[in-house]
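FORM 7B: Structural annotation worksheet

SECTION A. Query
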Amino acid sequence: MYDVTALGEILVDFTPAGDSPRGNRLFERNAGGAPANVLVCLAKLGDSTAFLGKVGDDAAGRFLVEVLKAHRVDVGGVRVDPAVPTTLAFVELDAQGGRTFDFRRNPGADTTLAPAEVDAARIADSRIFHLGSLSLTHEPARSATLLALSEARKHGLMVSYDPNLRPALWRDLDEAKTQIASVVRYADVVKLSGDELAFLTGEADPEIGSRMLQGHHGVPLVLVTLGPEGCLWRLGRSMGREPAFSGLAVVDTTGAGDAFLGAFLHTLVARDWTRVSEIEPGEMPRMVRFACAVAGLCTTRHGAIPAMPSPDEVARLLSRSGG
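SECTION B. Predicted structure
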């Protein structure tokens, strides 16, 4: 059985890597894509994972499959499209490591995953099913995503959802809000940024917004990542905050939210929990602190998948910070 199976985009992030001797910007090829990032984080922490998605029959697609294999992520559910190229993203970083994306995805292979190509057997043989919102931007991937979600619910899997908003990939933001919100009510765990929460609820205050999201959609567990302010969590009627780790040299925040969610799902797997109702509110601070540690370490390196930390690195950071 897989601990976590995820469906969605996998792509190449071209991340800034200094300048050439002639003064031209250099970019480093890194594997990325939010669902794939989450799985690699989990795999590095020792969990069994499987990825469902599609790449092009090109150098970028072959590179991505090899990266997943190297990190022990099962790729039996990855399809190859000979007619559509693998999605690419060029990343720009500001002085604080904040990032913006310029995508080459019109179309990209990940958007062409069809319902008939979804590996339902791998979903059925999993404990947790994870998905994001970028597979909802285009057909047929949208229908494939909804089919996979239906399979996960049919087999009683815990559903993890990241409403990962990338405005440039949607035809308009009204459609984005409708499609992203349509999945929220089926999720057991929803992880989103403060900006994404405000987009969905119209409320800038994360305490109010998380309560609205929970009340309107019945989400059992909401995790709001707030960058240097850490995380706000809401489990049923309980709510809390955990600070981010200070003193880390942040160079690139790409993948930090995915590292956070992967680490949090790892804490569920480690306790053999398959229902959010099994989580005691008193356990949440320690679980969220672990996730903040993993996310913090991810920001100290460039890229997303290459930046995912090892268990030993996480343990050292927690030890230095008093657990």
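SECTION C. Observations
The mean pLDDT is 95. The two ends are 31 Å apart (CA to CA).

SECTION D. Sign-off
Analyst initials: ____
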